[in-house]
TrEMBL record:
The chain crosses the membrane at residues 80-100, 120-137, 149-166, 178-197, 209-233, 239-259, 271-293, 333-353, 360-382, 388-407. Residues 20-70 are annotated as: Disordered. GO terms for cellular component: membrane. It comes from the Eukaryota. Belongs to the CRT-like transporter family. Its main location: membrane. This is Protein clt2. The keyword Cell membrane does not apply.
Amino acid sequence: MDNKTTLEIANQTINCENKPNCEEYTPLNLKSNKNPDQGEDANQNDQEFNNKLDLDSSNKESLSETIPKETPNEKVNNKLFKLTIVISLFFVSCTIYSLLLKKVAIAAPIYPFSLTQLSPLMGLIVYSLITVALYVGKKIKKEELAFPKYKAFIIGLLFCLVNLFQNLGNRGNLVPGPYVMIINNFVVIFSFLFEKLPPLRKKHTRYQYFSVVLLIIGIVTSVLSKLIAARGFSMKKSLLYVLLIVCANIFLSLSFIFIEWQLKTKHPKLAVQYLWSWVCFFQFLIGIPFSLLNAKIQGLDHSKIWSNFEQGVRCFVTGTNSNQSINCHSASVSWWFCICFGMIYNLAMGVSTRLGSATLVWLVKTMILPTATILFSFKWVMGENATQFHGLVILGFFLVLLSLLIYRGDNTVEFFKLKYSKKMNGFMKIPQNPNLSDLESFSEDTDSDIIEI
């Protein structure tokens, strides 16, 4: 019997355990099945082959022992850690982005259409370059780039509608700034309600309802001093404008409910930067026909739309002044930094939506209101445009922070309580606890022997 035949028989033995016909071909019996005429050479070959089998088996056992296995608890902890990092990055970048965007608007207020179109255009360039670099470097695979492009068109359209209705409702002084800030934070309420509808069908606990109420109290408290000082507001005259801003927040919440559905359910492996590159592409294209409405909002003659756009692009990109009443140098510096932090903010927002939820993203973003109000009061941040600081802002900040901790903490604590109860009691079934729906991304990676439904 040659070595090839011996190897075939050995493989047959390994692959046909518990079969009676295989016992006579085990490595220990190979010696009895060899050709007697082969003598000592055959015995030596058999011994070498048996030693090789033992060595391979020991190597496999040692290799399996050296590879650490991630426990279900570690999987959940890792996802919670990733979510914390991304949410923190989202909060910091969005806060800085909001401050810089305000500085840009103050320095060059006559180019809103240029500002609206430059953002998706720069996003298209940057996100496309990032995607290409990652793909060439084999950091992302083809399956991470596969999704129907009409979905990016839907998101881009919703974003354009947000800008349109926001600009229409925010024009002039019929709705003072503090009221606009309050109305814009109602995106949390709409997102919270839309999550309960198909396709997400999320259920919320009484603690989460309480956190949303607490959030509203925190918002109102943080701008209470500004509301008292506001003048010229009449609900009867401003009702249409208020409804337009409300519509903008409805479209904004719908856009991120749609994004959450796509990233968590339909395309969980989709590269976020690739999605944003297509969203920016469609947002830029859809924004072009909206230029007429932007001109109407601004009070600009239709014949001057594209000349105004060109002047705005030169102002923001190169700092070139075409109008002595504006400060293009300051606007350009702030705009470039604004674009950088805006890219980080958008990427972190998409990943946060995938790991958490749209409502969680807006709850975190709501914390920017009191935080930005504090920063707006510092002259080293806003210069001569710094606003007056009021102690109620601090109270509002802590109320908003508390609402965030209640909303997210209730899910996380309950999830771990169920897991550890399963370990201690040996067996349990998850009760009909609605707050677990927000932890789908965490529970889907856990083993079935840890939590049984």
